[in-house]
Predict the structure.
Amino acid sequence: MTSKPAFRRSEPDVRRQSLIEACGRVLAREGASGASVRMIALEAGVSPGLVSHYFAGVDALVAATYAQVGARVSAALDTAVEAAGSDPRARLEAFVTASFMPPIADPELLATWIAFWSLVTARADIARQHDAQYADFRARLAAMLGECGVPAARQRIAAIGLAALVDGLWLELCLSPGCFTPTEASAIALAQLGAVISTNR
Amino acid sequence: MTSKPAFRRSEPDVRRQSLIEACGRVLAREGASGASVRMIALEAGVSPGLVSHYFAGVDALVAATYAQVGARVSAALDTAVEAAGSDPRARLEAFVTASFMPPIADPELLATWIAFWSLVTARADIARQHDAQYADFRARLAAMLGECGVPAARQRIAAIGLAALVDGLWLELCLSPGCFTPTEASAIALAQLGAVISTNR
DNA sequence: TTGCTTGTTGGACGATTGTATAACAAATGC
DNA sequence: GCATTTGTTATACAATCGTCCAACAAGCAA
């Protein structure tokens, strides 16, 4: 008599990925305080010991989740930009607009972001990861602004301002969705974008 | 022989206030995960049981801390606005500039904000408190924009955008202080403020 | 089939959590 | 000076936390 397997083995990378995704779901559902090792393992359908086997602790898992979510956001923005064609202005506008639509404006992303932010103050390595990831975001904005005619001397400040506006709108859109609509957020961001670009004419 | 008192009694309001302040300090030092009942009681110099005696739980204490910190921020902005004189434009510019200077741009405030945000998703009453407190902030901005000549029809959108920009700059300024300076943040926000106001001429 | 590698399990362990409660003592009125 | 009130302490309690590790078994090689 052959009994059915009690569990399935996975490639290390696959298992890591499934734990990361489970962490994101738990963060979205239970909040940062509910993201314990046992809860994440239960969500992933594995034994609690596996989490410790793949990650140094919950903090490392949250950091990995943040990195993976950031990569997913980056990919979604890439898709939106490419779909906008070749005009630099249209590409930048697509970049901004996509920030307020699914899958970027998503409560699950917000929960991951907040859980990660709560680690930045206390842990230096987490702070470095945040700096690097956010610097990439701004550098990308600065490059697109350059293609729209913003001179190099103004790109840094313009990118910081645009990134802050998009982030602030995105944050409030996720925290209290009833306050304003994604369309209004896009209109606000595009208006400032227009002002920044037209300054140099 | 008279022994010295083992503890001092306080008025309920005074004790509540000291617990709130201790909560803010613990949040800034240990992060959201370290803000336990015992740690806060130790910081306040009282027994652990006293926290439960004054607040329903840590969540309620964090919410009270958020409300008190919000009131302190509001008062600091009031002071800055009044010091700017009577010109509406100067008052609004003072409002924006003060957002990036002490005591508002403060890591302790950031920790309290993040701890509060982490509760918004899971708890409806916390979400309502956030909506109300943020609506007040935007309403204040809208009123000041009105005094600067922004027509009523545009005040709401302009206030949302300005609030998002200030919040985004403030957040990034606290998360990674080395990225840009408070002066640069003020310059960015004032530039958008100028664009919003001059649109109506 | 047999044996080996290693992903995985499941529970033990001490530390820490939030909550509840009885005993205590400081402040106040009489 | 004494009794009352109540703010405060200290502890007990169950639940949950993160960490750890020996035993197990799935999958692969021989």
Q: What stands out?
A: Residues 6-10, 12, 15, 46-50, 53 of chain B lie near DNA strand D (CB under 10 Å from a C1'). Residues 58-83 of chain B form the longest helix (26 residues). Chain B touches chain A through 46 residues (CB under 8 Å).
